């Protein structure tokens, strides 16, 4: 009887259950910089030895970068170098990189982190100044060109930073820090406008 009641309660509750992305719909704009939450994407944290890189690159459809501070993009999928054997793979084309890695027999570890991370875009002429309000990284185009990626900090939160264009960045952070990071960037955009 308890099982039947539990099923009835679960069935009644399920139509109202809805997953909403953290910070959904939030954006802010100041003179020179816009800060906005990007749509959800599929992401994996990938670890692999040198011997597995070719097989994983083939399965993912994007060449895993081997040099520090680099990224590679192809067909809506981006691989960011985070360490000698570590990458963040982001898919914005609706494909599942975790499934692609599952078909590879070469040694690797692929963990789905789609619901752990939130992406925030910072764009405009003041984008670098906005991020530099709390990030010590040199974001000049000479030091951090288009396609550059790194794990760094913003204020007190760890982020992964990708430069998409001369005046556009993607900031990846854990959802538990997303409100802090978004607020920090919003305040930084107002400061950069002064």
Explain this structure.
- This protein is α+β, with helices and mostly antiparallel strands.
- It has 2 domains: 26-40 and 116-194, Probable tRNA modification gtpase trme, domain 1 (Gyrase A, domain 2, 2-Layer Sandwich); 42-113, Heterotetrameric sarcosine oxidase (Alpha-Beta Plaits), CATH 3.30.70.
- The longest helix has 15 residues, at 178-192.
- The chain contains 5 helices and 11 strands, in the order H-E-E-E-H-E-E-E-H-E-E-H-E-E-E-H.
- It has a 6-stranded antiparallel sheet with strand order 1-2-8-11-10-9. The protein has a 5-stranded antiparallel sheet with strand order 4-5-6-3-7.
- The chain has helices spanning 2-13, 53-60, 97-102, 127-132, 178-192, and strands at 27-30, 33-37, 42-47, 71-74, 77-83, 86-91, 109-112, 117-123, 149-154, 157-165, 168-174.
- A hairpin with a 2-residue loop joins strand 4 (71-74) and strand 5 (77-83).
CATH class of the largest domain: Alpha Beta
CATH homologous superfamily of the largest domain?
Answer: Probable tRNA modification gtpase trme, domain 1
- The residue fraction in helices comes out at 10-25%
Write down the overall geometry.
Answer: globular
Q: Structural class of the helices, strands and pairings?
A: alpha+beta
Name given to the CATH architecture of the largest domain: 2-Layer Sandwich
Model regions low in confidence, pLDDT < 50 over at least 5 residues: 1-11
Main beta sheet strand tally, sense and closure: 6 strands, antiparallel
Please tally the β strands and state the result: 11
How many whole angstroms does the radius of gyration measure?
19 Å
* Number of H- or I-type helical stretches: 5
Chain-averaged pLDDT? 91
Summed up, the domain count is 2
The CATH topology of the largest domain: Gyrase A, domain 2
- Series of H and E elements: HEEEHEEEHEEHEEEH
> Which range does the strand content fall in?
25-35%
Main-sheet strand order equals 1-2-8-11-10-9
- End-to-end Cα distance: 66 Å
Biased composition (Low complexity): 1-13
Protein name: Sarcosine oxidase subunit gamma
GO molecular function: sarcosine oxidase activity
Region (Disordered): 1-31
């Amino acid at each position: 009887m308890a099982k039947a009641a539990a099923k009835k309660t679960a069935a009644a509750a399920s139509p109202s259950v809805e997953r909403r992305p953290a910070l959904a719909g939030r954006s802010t704009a100041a003179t020179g910089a816009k800060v906005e939450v990007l749509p959800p994407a599929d992401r994996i944290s990938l670890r692999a030895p040198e011997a597995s890189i070719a097989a994983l690159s083939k399965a993912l459809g994007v060449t895993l970068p081997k040099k520090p501070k680099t990224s590679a993009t192809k067909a809506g999928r981006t691989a960011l170098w985070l360490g000698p054997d570590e990458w963040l793979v982001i898919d914005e084309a609706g494909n599942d990189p975790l499934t692609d890695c599952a078909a590879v027999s070469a040694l690797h570890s692929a963990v789905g982190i789609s619901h752990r991370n939130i992406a925030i875009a910072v764009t405009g002429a003041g984008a670098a100044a906005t991020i530099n309000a709390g990030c010590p990284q040199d974001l000049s185009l000479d030091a951090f060109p288009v396609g550059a990626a790194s794990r760094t900090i913003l204020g007190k939160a760890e982020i992964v930073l990708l430069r998409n264009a001369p005046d556009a960045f993607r900031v990846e952070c854990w959802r538990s820090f997303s409100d802090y990071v978004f607020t920090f960037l919003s305040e930084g955009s107002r400061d950069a406008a002064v």
